[in-house]
Protein backbone atom coordinates (compact mmCIF):
# COMPACT_ATOMS: atom_id res chain seq x y z
CA UNK A 1 0.00 0.00 0.00
CA UNK A 2 2.99 2.31 0.06
CA UNK A 3 2.61 2.86 -3.70
CA UNK A 4 -0.62 4.64 -4.75
CA UNK A 5 -0.81 2.81 -8.08
CA UNK A 6 -1.13 -0.94 -7.89
CA UNK A 7 1.56 -2.77 -9.81
CA UNK A 8 1.52 -6.43 -10.75
CA UNK A 9 -1.41 -8.20 -9.17
CA UNK A 10 -2.40 -5.25 -6.96
CA UNK A 11 -3.20 -5.31 -3.21
CA UNK A 12 -6.37 -7.34 -3.75
CA UNK A 13 -4.86 -10.34 -5.48
CA UNK A 14 -1.70 -10.07 -3.37
CA UNK A 15 -3.73 -10.31 -0.18
CA UNK A 16 -5.78 -13.21 -1.53
CA UNK A 17 -2.64 -15.06 -2.59
CA UNK A 18 -0.99 -14.52 0.78
CA UNK A 19 -3.99 -15.95 2.63
CA UNK A 20 -4.35 -18.96 0.34
CA UNK A 21 -0.63 -19.78 0.35
CA UNK A 22 -0.50 -19.49 4.13
CA UNK A 23 -3.54 -21.77 4.22
CA UNK A 24 -1.59 -24.50 2.44
CA UNK A 25 0.68 -24.57 5.46
CA UNK A 26 -2.23 -24.68 7.87
CA UNK A 27 -2.07 -21.00 8.84
CA UNK A 28 -5.28 -19.02 8.88
CA UNK A 29 -5.63 -15.23 9.02
CA UNK A 30 -5.02 -13.63 12.41
CA UNK A 31 -8.50 -12.12 12.31
CA UNK A 32 -11.65 -13.26 10.49
CA UNK A 33 -12.10 -11.73 7.04
CA UNK A 34 -15.90 -11.83 7.29
CA UNK A 35 -17.09 -8.65 9.11
CA UNK A 36 -19.68 -10.45 11.21
CA UNK A 37 -17.20 -13.18 12.09
CA UNK A 38 -14.78 -10.44 13.12
CA UNK A 39 -17.37 -8.87 15.41
CA UNK A 40 -18.28 -12.21 17.00
CA UNK A 41 -14.66 -13.12 17.58
CA UNK A 42 -14.08 -9.79 19.32
CA UNK A 43 -17.15 -10.37 21.47
CA UNK A 44 -15.70 -13.68 22.65
CA UNK A 45 -12.36 -12.01 23.40
CA UNK A 46 -13.54 -8.90 25.25
CA UNK A 47 -15.19 -8.64 28.64
CA UNK A 48 -18.79 -7.43 28.76
CA UNK A 49 -18.16 -3.74 29.60
CA UNK A 50 -15.46 -3.39 26.94
CA UNK A 51 -17.55 -4.96 24.20
CA UNK A 52 -20.62 -2.96 25.24
CA UNK A 53 -18.74 0.32 24.93
CA UNK A 54 -16.99 -0.48 21.65
CA UNK A 55 -19.84 -2.25 19.87
CA UNK A 56 -22.95 -0.67 21.35
CA UNK A 57 -25.23 2.01 19.99
CA UNK A 58 -28.04 4.31 21.05
CA UNK A 59 -31.42 2.99 22.15
CA UNK A 60 -32.52 -0.14 20.33
CA UNK A 61 -29.58 0.30 17.94
CA UNK A 62 -31.89 0.96 15.01
CA UNK A 63 -29.50 3.60 13.66
CA UNK A 64 -26.68 1.07 13.60
CA UNK A 65 -28.92 -1.20 11.55
CA UNK A 66 -29.95 1.70 9.32
CA UNK A 67 -26.30 2.28 8.47
CA UNK A 68 -25.86 -1.34 7.39
CA UNK A 69 -29.20 -1.37 5.55
CA UNK A 70 -28.22 1.74 3.62
CA UNK A 71 -25.19 -0.02 2.21
CA UNK A 72 -27.25 -3.12 1.44
CA UNK A 73 -29.71 -0.99 -0.53
CA UNK A 74 -27.08 0.41 -2.90
CA UNK A 75 -26.36 -1.85 -5.88
CA UNK A 76 -23.18 -1.72 -7.92
CA UNK A 77 -23.31 -2.05 -11.72
CA UNK A 78 -20.11 -3.32 -13.39
CA UNK A 79 -18.88 -2.77 -16.94
CA UNK A 80 -16.93 -5.43 -18.82
CA UNK A 81 -13.80 -5.56 -20.99
CA UNK A 82 -12.48 -2.26 -19.65
CA UNK A 83 -8.85 -3.28 -19.33
CA UNK A 84 -8.63 -2.42 -15.65
CA UNK A 85 -5.67 -4.66 -14.80
CA UNK A 86 -3.83 -1.71 -13.28
CA UNK A 87 -5.71 0.33 -10.69
CA UNK A 88 -4.88 3.55 -8.87
CA UNK A 89 -6.38 3.51 -5.38
CA UNK A 90 -4.93 6.83 -4.27
CA UNK A 91 -6.89 9.91 -3.23
CA UNK A 92 -5.85 13.49 -2.58
CA UNK A 93 -7.15 15.46 0.38
CA UNK A 94 -6.00 18.94 1.40
CA UNK A 95 -2.82 18.73 -0.62
CA UNK A 96 -1.81 15.26 0.62
CA UNK A 97 -1.98 12.04 -1.37
CA UNK A 98 -3.02 8.91 0.51
CA UNK A 99 -2.60 5.35 -0.80
CA UNK A 100 -6.28 4.43 -0.54
CA UNK A 101 -9.57 6.21 0.26
CA UNK A 102 -9.61 4.77 3.79
CA UNK A 103 -8.83 6.59 7.03
CA UNK A 104 -9.02 5.17 10.53
CA UNK A 105 -11.89 6.83 12.39
CA UNK A 106 -11.33 8.34 15.83
CA UNK A 107 -12.31 5.78 18.45
CA UNK A 108 -12.11 6.51 22.16
CA UNK A 109 -10.92 4.33 25.03
CA UNK A 110 -9.02 1.85 22.87
CA UNK A 111 -7.38 0.48 26.01
CA UNK A 112 -10.63 -1.47 26.39
CA UNK A 113 -9.58 -3.48 23.33
CA UNK A 114 -5.84 -3.84 23.91
CA UNK A 115 -3.20 -2.63 26.35
CA UNK A 116 -1.22 -0.88 23.59
CA UNK A 117 -4.36 0.96 22.52
CA UNK A 118 -3.75 3.97 20.25
CA UNK A 119 -0.04 3.20 19.97
CA UNK A 120 -0.77 -0.14 18.29
CA UNK A 121 -3.30 1.48 15.95
CA UNK A 122 -0.90 4.30 15.09
CA UNK A 123 1.89 1.86 14.25
CA UNK A 124 -0.48 -0.21 12.13
CA UNK A 125 -1.66 2.85 10.23
CA UNK A 126 1.92 4.03 9.73
CA UNK A 127 2.99 0.65 8.39
CA UNK A 128 0.40 0.96 5.62
CA UNK A 129 0.43 4.72 5.05
CA UNK A 130 -3.19 5.10 6.13
CA UNK A 131 -4.13 8.28 8.04
CA UNK A 132 -5.13 7.74 11.67
CA UNK A 133 -7.50 10.28 13.20
CA UNK A 134 -6.51 10.64 16.87
CA UNK A 135 -9.43 10.77 19.30
CA UNK A 136 -9.91 13.37 22.01
CA UNK A 137 -10.83 10.38 24.19
CA UNK A 138 -7.62 8.49 23.48
CA UNK A 139 -5.89 6.15 25.89
CA UNK A 140 -2.45 7.41 24.86
CA UNK A 141 -1.46 11.08 24.44
CA UNK A 142 -1.27 12.46 20.92
CA UNK A 143 2.43 13.25 21.23
CA UNK A 144 3.33 9.64 22.00
CA UNK A 145 1.24 8.25 19.15
CA UNK A 146 2.67 10.82 16.73
CA UNK A 147 6.19 9.79 17.75
CA UNK A 148 5.33 6.13 17.18
CA UNK A 149 4.03 6.96 13.70
CA UNK A 150 7.04 8.95 12.51
CA UNK A 151 6.17 10.97 9.42
CA UNK A 152 3.04 8.98 8.60
CA UNK A 153 -0.20 10.98 8.24
CA UNK A 154 -2.41 11.75 11.22
CA UNK A 155 -5.45 13.96 11.82
CA UNK A 156 -7.09 14.91 15.13
CA UNK A 157 -10.71 14.69 16.24
CA UNK A 158 -11.73 17.51 18.58
CA UNK A 159 -14.52 17.70 21.14
CA UNK A 160 -15.24 21.33 21.99
CA UNK A 161 -15.85 21.30 25.74
CA UNK A 162 -16.98 24.02 28.10
CA UNK A 163 -13.39 24.53 29.33
CA UNK A 164 -12.30 26.57 26.34
CA UNK A 165 -8.69 26.94 27.47
CA UNK A 166 -8.35 23.16 27.30
CA UNK A 167 -9.89 23.13 23.83
CA UNK A 168 -7.46 25.80 22.64
CA UNK A 169 -4.57 23.93 24.22
CA UNK A 170 -5.56 20.78 22.32
CA UNK A 171 -5.45 22.73 19.05
CA UNK A 172 -1.94 24.00 19.77
CA UNK A 173 -0.75 20.50 20.66
CA UNK A 174 -2.37 19.09 17.52
CA UNK A 175 -0.41 21.48 15.35
CA UNK A 176 2.81 20.72 17.20
CA UNK A 177 2.49 16.97 16.71
CA UNK A 178 2.14 17.24 12.95
CA UNK A 179 -1.56 16.66 12.38
CA UNK A 180 -2.72 17.42 8.83
CA UNK A 181 -6.32 18.33 9.70
CA UNK A 182 -8.73 18.87 12.59
CA UNK A 183 -12.04 17.01 12.70
CA UNK A 184 -14.59 18.80 14.88
CA UNK A 185 -17.28 16.38 16.06
CA UNK A 186 -20.68 18.06 16.21
CA UNK A 187 -23.04 15.23 17.16
CA UNK A 188 -21.89 14.66 20.75
CA UNK A 189 -22.83 17.89 22.49
CA UNK A 190 -24.77 15.51 24.74
CA UNK A 191 -24.01 11.87 25.43
CA UNK A 192 -26.46 9.55 23.67
CA UNK A 193 -28.68 7.06 25.52
CA UNK A 194 -26.70 3.81 25.31
CA UNK A 195 -28.48 0.91 27.03
CA UNK A 196 -25.57 -1.53 26.87
CA UNK A 197 -23.42 0.81 28.97
CA UNK A 198 -26.31 1.89 31.18
CA UNK A 199 -27.29 -1.69 32.01
CA UNK A 200 -23.74 -2.30 33.21
CA UNK A 201 -23.51 1.07 34.96
CA UNK A 202 -20.26 1.64 33.09
CA UNK A 203 -18.81 4.92 31.88
CA UNK A 204 -15.07 4.37 31.26
CA UNK A 205 -14.09 7.98 31.90
CA UNK A 206 -15.15 7.72 35.55
CA UNK A 207 -12.51 5.00 35.89
CA UNK A 208 -9.83 7.19 34.35
CA UNK A 209 -9.97 5.44 30.98
CA UNK A 210 -9.81 7.38 27.72
CA UNK A 211 -8.50 10.57 29.35
CA UNK A 212 -4.90 10.60 28.14
CA UNK A 213 -5.22 13.83 26.12
CA UNK A 214 -6.61 15.61 29.18
CA UNK A 215 -4.29 14.14 31.80
CA UNK A 216 -1.27 15.29 29.77
CA UNK A 217 -2.62 18.77 29.11
CA UNK A 218 -1.18 21.58 31.20
CA UNK A 219 -4.42 23.57 31.27
CA UNK A 220 -6.51 20.58 32.30
CA UNK A 221 -4.02 19.55 34.97
CA UNK A 222 -4.05 23.07 36.42
CA UNK A 223 -7.71 22.50 37.31
CA UNK A 224 -6.75 19.63 39.62
CA UNK A 225 -4.74 21.63 42.17
CA UNK A 226 -7.68 22.05 44.54
CA UNK A 227 -9.05 18.63 45.36
CA UNK A 228 -12.44 18.35 47.01
CA UNK A 229 -14.52 15.21 47.02
CA UNK A 230 -18.24 15.94 46.63
CA UNK A 231 -20.44 15.83 49.72
CA UNK A 232 -22.12 12.49 50.25
CA UNK A 233 -19.31 10.47 48.64
CA UNK A 234 -20.34 6.78 48.94
CA UNK A 235 -18.66 4.59 51.51
CA UNK A 236 -16.10 2.15 50.08
CA UNK A 237 -17.52 -0.94 48.43
CA UNK A 238 -15.91 -3.64 46.25
CA UNK A 239 -17.07 -1.84 43.11
CA UNK A 240 -15.77 1.53 44.30
CA UNK A 241 -12.49 -0.02 45.37
CA UNK A 242 -12.11 -1.50 41.89
CA UNK A 243 -12.78 1.90 40.37
CA UNK A 244 -10.27 3.47 42.74
CA UNK A 245 -7.68 0.92 41.64
CA UNK A 246 -8.26 1.86 38.01
CA UNK A 247 -8.00 5.57 38.81
CA UNK A 248 -4.84 5.00 40.82
CA UNK A 249 -3.24 3.00 37.99
CA UNK A 250 -3.95 5.77 35.49
CA UNK A 251 -2.72 8.31 38.02
CA UNK A 252 0.62 6.52 38.31
CA UNK A 253 0.92 6.48 34.52
CA UNK A 254 0.40 10.24 34.26
CA UNK A 255 1.94 11.36 37.55
CA UNK A 256 -1.28 12.18 39.39
CA UNK A 257 -2.55 11.18 42.83
CA UNK A 258 -5.74 9.21 43.37
CA UNK A 259 -7.42 12.37 44.69
CA UNK A 260 -6.38 14.28 41.58
CA UNK A 261 -7.64 11.46 39.36
CA UNK A 262 -11.04 11.61 41.07
CA UNK A 263 -11.14 15.33 40.41
CA UNK A 264 -9.99 14.78 36.82
CA UNK A 265 -12.78 12.30 36.14
CA UNK A 266 -15.35 14.64 37.67
CA UNK A 267 -14.07 17.72 35.84
CA UNK A 268 -13.96 15.90 32.53
CA UNK A 269 -17.51 14.55 32.74
CA UNK A 270 -18.76 18.01 33.70
CA UNK A 271 -16.96 19.86 30.91
CA UNK A 272 -16.31 17.68 27.87
CA UNK A 273 -19.63 18.35 26.11
CA UNK A 274 -20.98 21.75 25.17
CA UNK A 275 -24.69 21.74 24.27
CA UNK A 276 -24.70 25.49 23.52
CA UNK A 277 -22.17 25.23 20.67
CA UNK A 278 -23.38 27.26 17.67
CA UNK A 279 -22.27 28.12 14.14
CA UNK A 280 -20.84 31.46 15.22
CA UNK A 281 -18.37 29.65 17.48
CA UNK A 282 -16.61 28.19 14.44
CA UNK A 283 -15.04 31.55 13.65
CA UNK A 284 -12.95 31.26 16.82
CA UNK A 285 -11.70 27.81 15.86
CA UNK A 286 -10.82 29.19 12.45
CA UNK A 287 -8.76 31.91 14.17
CA UNK A 288 -6.94 29.37 16.35
CA UNK A 289 -5.51 27.25 13.53
CA UNK A 290 -4.46 27.26 9.91
CA UNK A 291 -5.09 23.52 9.60
CA UNK A 292 -8.01 22.32 7.46
CA UNK A 293 -11.17 21.97 9.56
CA UNK A 294 -13.70 19.24 8.79
CA UNK A 295 -17.11 19.08 10.46
CA UNK A 296 -18.02 15.54 11.48
CA UNK A 297 -21.64 14.60 12.08
CA UNK A 298 -23.29 16.48 9.20
CA UNK A 299 -26.42 14.80 7.82
CA UNK A 300 -28.68 17.67 6.73
CA UNK A 301 -27.96 19.38 3.38
CA UNK A 302 -28.64 22.79 4.92
CA UNK A 303 -25.87 22.17 7.45
CA UNK A 304 -23.53 21.31 4.58
CA UNK A 305 -24.36 24.60 2.87
CA UNK A 306 -23.81 26.46 6.15
CA UNK A 307 -20.44 24.78 6.61
CA UNK A 308 -19.34 25.95 3.17
CA UNK A 309 -20.51 29.50 3.86
CA UNK A 310 -18.65 29.51 7.20
CA UNK A 311 -15.33 28.74 5.52
CA UNK A 312 -14.94 25.17 6.69
CA UNK A 313 -12.68 22.92 4.62
CA UNK A 314 -14.55 19.63 4.56
CA UNK A 315 -17.49 17.57 5.80
CA UNK A 316 -17.77 14.09 7.24
CA UNK A 317 -21.25 12.64 6.82
CA UNK A 318 -21.74 10.65 10.01
CA UNK A 319 -24.22 9.63 12.67
CA UNK A 320 -21.45 8.60 15.09
CA UNK A 321 -21.81 4.97 14.16
CA UNK A 322 -25.35 4.92 15.53
CA UNK A 323 -24.21 5.82 19.05
CA UNK A 324 -26.12 9.07 19.55
CA UNK A 325 -29.76 8.98 18.32
CA UNK A 326 -31.88 5.86 18.01
CA UNK A 327 -33.83 5.80 14.76
CA UNK A 328 -31.57 8.30 12.98
CA UNK A 329 -31.18 8.21 9.22
CA UNK A 330 -28.32 6.11 7.86
CA UNK A 331 -25.24 8.12 6.91
CA UNK A 332 -25.00 6.68 3.41
CA UNK A 333 -28.64 7.57 2.77
CA UNK A 334 -27.87 11.26 3.17
CA UNK A 335 -24.51 11.24 1.41
CA UNK A 336 -25.68 12.24 -2.12
CA UNK A 337 -27.74 15.19 -0.87
CA UNK A 338 -24.91 16.43 1.35
CA UNK A 339 -22.41 16.11 -1.51
CA UNK A 340 -24.70 18.18 -3.73
CA UNK A 341 -25.19 20.84 -1.06
CA UNK A 342 -21.50 21.01 -0.10
CA UNK A 343 -20.41 22.41 -3.45
CA UNK A 344 -16.64 22.24 -3.75
CA UNK A 345 -16.04 21.02 -0.19
CA UNK A 346 -14.61 17.48 0.06
CA UNK A 347 -17.14 15.12 1.65
CA UNK A 348 -16.11 11.98 3.52
CA UNK A 349 -18.37 9.20 4.83
CA UNK A 350 -18.38 7.61 8.28
CA UNK A 351 -20.67 5.05 9.96
CA UNK A 352 -21.45 1.57 8.73
CA UNK A 353 -18.37 0.95 6.56
CA UNK A 354 -17.47 -2.71 6.89
CA UNK A 355 -16.05 -3.87 3.55
CA UNK A 356 -14.16 -2.80 0.47
CA UNK A 357 -17.39 -2.97 -1.49
CA UNK A 358 -18.84 -0.46 1.00
CA UNK A 359 -15.94 1.86 0.20
CA UNK A 360 -16.74 1.60 -3.51
CA UNK A 361 -20.43 2.35 -2.91
CA UNK A 362 -19.66 5.42 -0.83
CA UNK A 363 -17.28 6.77 -3.46
CA UNK A 364 -19.74 6.09 -6.27
CA UNK A 365 -22.22 8.22 -4.32
CA UNK A 366 -19.79 11.10 -4.06
CA UNK A 367 -17.57 10.51 -1.02
CA UNK A 368 -13.89 11.36 -1.45
CA UNK A 369 -12.90 8.79 1.20
CA UNK A 370 -14.37 6.83 4.11
CA UNK A 371 -13.61 6.39 7.79
CA UNK A 372 -13.26 2.83 9.09
CA UNK A 373 -14.17 2.40 12.75
CA UNK A 374 -15.36 -0.63 14.69
CA UNK A 375 -13.72 -3.27 12.46
CA UNK A 376 -10.21 -2.09 13.28
CA UNK A 377 -11.08 -1.97 16.99
CA UNK A 378 -12.11 -5.62 16.75
CA UNK A 379 -8.85 -6.43 14.99
CA UNK A 380 -7.00 -4.61 17.77
CA UNK A 381 -8.79 -6.69 20.38
CA UNK A 382 -7.92 -9.95 18.65
CA UNK A 383 -4.29 -9.41 17.64
CA UNK A 384 -3.05 -5.94 18.56
CA UNK A 385 -1.16 -4.02 15.89
CA UNK A 386 -1.03 -7.02 13.57
CA UNK A 387 -4.80 -7.44 13.86
CA UNK A 388 -5.39 -3.81 12.90
CA UNK A 389 -3.10 -4.17 9.91
CA UNK A 390 -4.93 -7.26 8.71
CA UNK A 391 -8.30 -5.52 8.93
CA UNK A 392 -7.01 -2.58 6.91
CA UNK A 393 -5.39 -4.86 4.34
CA UNK A 394 -8.60 -6.85 3.96
CA UNK A 395 -10.77 -3.78 3.38
CA UNK A 396 -8.31 -2.26 0.91
CA UNK A 397 -7.84 -5.59 -0.86
CA UNK A 398 -11.58 -6.01 -1.39
CA UNK A 399 -11.85 -2.42 -2.56
CA UNK A 400 -9.09 -2.99 -5.09
CA UNK A 401 -10.77 -6.13 -6.43
CA UNK A 402 -14.17 -4.42 -6.50
CA UNK A 403 -12.66 -1.53 -8.44
CA UNK A 404 -11.24 -3.87 -11.04
CA UNK A 405 -14.38 -5.96 -11.31
CA UNK A 406 -16.46 -2.82 -11.83
CA UNK A 407 -14.24 -1.94 -14.77
CA UNK A 408 -12.78 1.14 -13.10
CA UNK A 409 -9.15 2.18 -13.37
CA UNK A 410 -8.95 4.45 -10.34
CA UNK A 411 -10.74 5.26 -7.11
CA UNK A 412 -11.36 8.79 -8.36
CA UNK A 413 -13.19 7.41 -11.39
CA UNK A 414 -16.03 5.93 -9.34
CA UNK A 415 -19.38 7.65 -9.79
CA UNK A 416 -23.10 7.18 -10.49
CA UNK A 417 -22.24 5.26 -13.66
CA UNK A 418 -21.17 2.39 -11.40
CA UNK A 419 -24.54 2.19 -9.64
CA UNK A 420 -27.70 0.39 -10.74
From TrEMBL:
Binding site for FMN: 106-108, 135, 157, 185, 296, 318, 350-354, 373-374
Domain FMN hydroxy acid dehydrogenase: 27-420
Residues where glyoxylate binds: 53, 159, 194, 320, 323
Molecular function (Gene Ontology), one example: oxidoreductase activity
Claim: Oxidoreductase is one of the keywords in the record: yes
Alphabetically ordered keywords of this record: Flavoprotein, FMN, Oxidoreductase
InterPro entries for this protein: Aldolase_TIM, Alpha-hydoxy_acid_DH_FMN, FMN-dep_DH, FMN_HAD, FMN_hydac_DH_AS, LMO_FMN
Pfam family name, one: FMN_dh
Flavoprotein keyword on record: yes
Parts of the chain that traverse the membrane: none
Catalytic residues as annotated in Swiss-Prot or TrEMBL: 320 (proton acceptor)
Top-level taxonomic group: Bacteria
Cofactor(s) needed: FMN
Family: Belongs to the FMN-dependent alpha-hydroxy acid dehydrogenase family.
Protein name: L-lactate dehydrogenase
Organism of this sequence: Deinococcus marmoris
